Amino acid sequence: MAKMKVRFAPSPTGPFHIGGARSALFNWLLARKEGGTFLLRIEDTDLARSTRESEENIKAALKWLGMDWDEGIDVGGDNGPYRQTERLDIYKEVTERLIKEGKAYRCYCSEEELETERQAQLDRGETPKYNGHCSHLTDEQIAAYEQEGRKYTVRLRVPLNQTFAFDDMVRGHVSFESNGVGDFVIVKSDGIPVYNYAVVIDDHTMGITHVIRAEEHLSNTPRQIAIYNALGWEVPTFGHISLILGKDYKKMSKRHGATSVDQYRQLGYLPDAIDNFLALLGWAPEGEQELFTKDELIQNFSMDRVAKNPAVFDIDKLNWINFNYMKNLSDEALYELCLPHLQEAGYASASPDATEKAKLIMLCVCLKDHISFGAQIKEEAKLIFDDTFAFDEAHAEDIQAVLAEESCLTVLKAFREAVAGLEEITPEVVKATIKGIMKETKLKGKFVFMPIRIATTGQMHGPDLNYIITLFGKEKTLARLDETISKISA
């Protein structure tokens, strides 16, 4: 039995979509699980929309997600070139063979003639398909068309009364009747092969054994099987994975949020968290486990457990997964993830020195439990960097109740006096200072912590108070304590 070989073959026509990343991941996981080969091919026959910039974006995204490829673009191999526009001679040779064998023919019908016939079929209540007008042209007719200067396409001769059937890895047994297909174009009038034709030649000549792709390609499969049959080539095993829907059960689009892999990278998500999340879009592992290392994904992945039903892209689930991955980052790695966002907000300089870096690392650690991805630190860091001070209006009643406590003023004055006398402020020093006030006033924790938190941050809840006060520094902490004490005393 041939060694498994799968491929990912994107069209470089725009930003790399998260759905494409999921297709790539399923192929990559299966290849790694089965000890097979993962190939990357670029399908750039859409000349008007394909760009090298998009190709680079795709490659960069795959590398960022940790999906290395064994053969293909940049890496090389025995079956290149791996860009379709560099394979036109290969397609031409196969086309000439099909025409010579009578399995394909030149079609001189104009677009206007085809549209007129299509409309007539619709008017008769028929499914539109090519009527075979050019399928048996005489030499004289061909010469006349050539004399007119008509351009031609090449159509595959599809046999009638046949069934194109295959066992899909996800959908089970699938069949299509050839009579509903009709003779279809395989080479356009500009000599460029259509998708369905080029992909078959590429997959065969590159030795692809399993084709795992999005469900929207299911309707292409009968045409591709017709091409395989005409060429006498073995049909690979197909697996069509479900669409990705938004939470409103409509096809994933920009209205659901970020749709490209690069957007998630720029927002400060972690690649392994994205992989973990994408794997769970349509694949159901055994048991209740939801957080997987890359090695665990490879070990557990199976096409047998890929669902037919559409997968729902739940951003809250992604944020939960990413939050759990962020918790395991070192302080340095967390800082590196958050730094671009702090710089964007104006909270960090372009090149932090050792002192600034130490403060920013403390900030990141302090806010770690309050962010699900890097960009969220911009909003959370306002607490530290925004000098405007006001009590949280959403909890105004509760805040007033704490400030009205008999012991509140005593606690705040004692804390203010203690902070004023400190030579340095560190989380450890703040912690010891608050403990000293609890001992001095004989008050339990919340009767000390809560007044200090409200008096310094204006909030009932938030990050570790010892870190917050350290990050505020002495001057800012005293200013806020004075402002709150004066409000209570008034």
Can you offer a commentary on this structure?
- The protein has 490 residues and is mostly helical.
- 48% of the residues lie in helices and 10% in strands.
- Strands 1-2-3 form a 3-stranded parallel β-sheet. A 3-stranded antiparallel β-sheet has the order 4-5-8. The protein has a two-stranded antiparallel ribbon with strand order 6-7.
- α17 crosses α18.
- The protein starts with a strand and ends with a helix.
- 33% of the residues are buried.
- The model has no long low-confidence stretch (mean pLDDT 95).
Total number of strands? 12
Strand content: 5-15%
**Biggest β-sheet: count, sense, barrel?**
3 strands, parallel
Overall mean pLDDT: 95
Give a concise summary:
The chain is mostly helical and 490 residues long. The chain is built from 20 helices and twelve strands.
What's the topology here?
Blueprint: E1 5-8, H1 18-34, E2 37-40, H2 52-64, E3 71-72, H3 88-100, E4 104-107, H4 111-123, H5 139-148, E5 153-156, E6 163-168, E7 172-177, E8 185-187, H6 195-205, E9 210-214, H7 221-231, E10 237-241, E11 244-245, H8 261-266, H9 271-279, H10 294-300, E12 311-312, H11 315-327, H12 331-344, H13 354-367, H14 377-380, H15 382-385, H16 396-403, H17 408-420, H18 427-441, H19 445-457, H20 465-489
Parallel strand pairs: 1-2, 2-3, 9-10, 11-12
Antiparallel strand pairs: 4-5, 5-8, 6-7
Helix pairs in contact: 1-10, 6-7, 9-11, 12-13, 17-18, 17-19, 17-20, 18-20, 19-20
